[in-house]
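hey so u asked for the seq, here:
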Amino acid sequence: MRKAKVLIDRDFIIGHTDPRLFGAFIEHLGRCIYGGIYEPGHPSADERGFRKDVLALVKELGPTLVRYPGGNFVSGYNWEDGVGPLETRPARLDLAWFSTEPNSFGTNEFMDWCRAADVAPMMAVNLGTRGGDAARNLVEYCNHPGGTAWSELRRKHGWRRPHGIKLWCLGNEMDGPWQIEQKSAAAYGVVAREAAKMMRRVDPTIELAVCGSSSRKMPSFGQWEETVLEHTFDYVDYISIHTYLENYSQDTASFLASTDLMDSFIDEVIVLADAVAAKRRSKKRLMLSFDEWNVWYRTRNEVAPVVDRWPVAPPILEEIYTMEDALAFGGACISLLNHADRVRVACLAQLVNVIAPIMTKTGGGAWRQTIFFPFAYMSRFGRGRILRAQVESEAYYASYNNPDGRPAETFPVPDVPYLKIAAVAEQGGGLSLFLLNRDLRQEMEVSVEARSFGPLTVHERLELRHDDPMAANTEDTPDKVKPAPLQSVAFDRGRLRATLKPASWNVIYLAPH
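ran it, structure tokens below
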């Protein structure tokens, strides 16, 4: 049996979780919107076409923020196409996903859906085929009370009160060759700066996120951040980063260790942003918006143009998640929590059907994928002060190699702790522990010394695991993988002892009494 020791103190904190850390993402991509959250005529649909069975699962999942409308889609999107009477909205070819976009769901429907789901909006603007003028018009349409052309148009469309959208993305992944109107760092920096200036003049209260590198593997990583921030530092609040965990090599141990690369990516972007601040002698500190993250690799090469047809909402990128994926996903949740001092916004990509925790059948039911559970428990128990944990754990060596021709990666440090943990002290005096046992064969006995807390008692204890690492939830077996009670847990005199099963993701909540 493996052994691990953890020391935490209520007064030794990393930072406080921002409620927007628990965000998600919907894009006009595949069946995420059409056939996902929006399906007029479905037995569960309300009068607006919103699927109530999906809304119920979204509320159970617990996202606090949803990013929209993209993603790659936004770089070719004219927001005006998605407002006004449905019968006047044009269908367009979506060059990002080789589909036909009917535009029957747009900005106002999104805002109504956000209110129904009780989530805050995060709106992206098109800085690919368009620029600052269209962006500032969208801010005016959404946020200005009335008396101007765009705000009065919103009122004419039936939304008399402004939407009050506070968080905005300045484009999407503009460094990527897959992006419509890809730009150099300098060109994007100028466009983003000018858009930011105009958007802020329309509404000085908004917050803005500028595009960082699309991934840590981009050849321009580092140089991109430096150049873009030289142009935009004074006008933005966040720099965005994206990461998708992969297991191309079919190496489970290394897959579970890959979340440590996510930690490194965060730390490196912080250094890059702070270096720009230092060169300006500025006390301003940019926060990070981790507005795309997930496990994704099986369906990456699924999208290709079909010359003779451009389907509406084709079933693409519908990744089926396994127990193994849920473990890596749970490790990513822990990474986000442990960087709450600088990662203030994060968006799970995506929410429904497309690389998503929720799956639906068009005209049929909806169910939870394996990755649903770590996110739901992170959102439920992850609110509060993130504590700095001192961990003593045995470790292993992991390499992260991609056999598909892309550059191989190895971890900066070969010692990957078998235990990955985050500790959250809630305002009311409780303590939440998120624990990943990355050993695939051995149980782990964990001892946690919790200092400076009042009397606590074990209130929740859950484990997510399955004997078959490839087990997945489907329409026919929607509950094959689900949380179960963690059996061996005890807390006495400030010390918790728990036995974690091999390859398991665990949550323990200690309530004050």
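The two ends are 32 Å apart (CA to CA). Residues 259-279 form the longest helix (21 residues).
lmk if thats what u needed
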